[in-house]
Write a structure and sequence with these properties.
InterPro entries: SecG (IPR004692). It holds the Pfam family SecG. With 80 residues, this protein is mainly α. It has a domain of 36 residues. The termini are close together. The model has no long low-confidence stretch (mean pLDDT 81).
Amino acid sequence: MALAAKILLVIASIGLIIVVLLQSGKSAGLSGAIGGGAEQLMGKQKARGIDALLGKLTVVFAVGFMIFAILLGYFLKTGA
């Protein structure tokens, strides 16, 4: 059972890393304000949809990572 938890933990952590790296960064400062205004003017609806999907996937992988880490700690403590 501990082996399965280890494998799922590795899969969740790699998935979390990939999803976080695929997300677009939030711009700050004056350049972000200008770029954000231009982006809003051009209307990039597809980019917002992809960002929303990546945000949801981030939550799913993060929750999975936490659950599998807790399960792995439990299995290693009990010796199962």
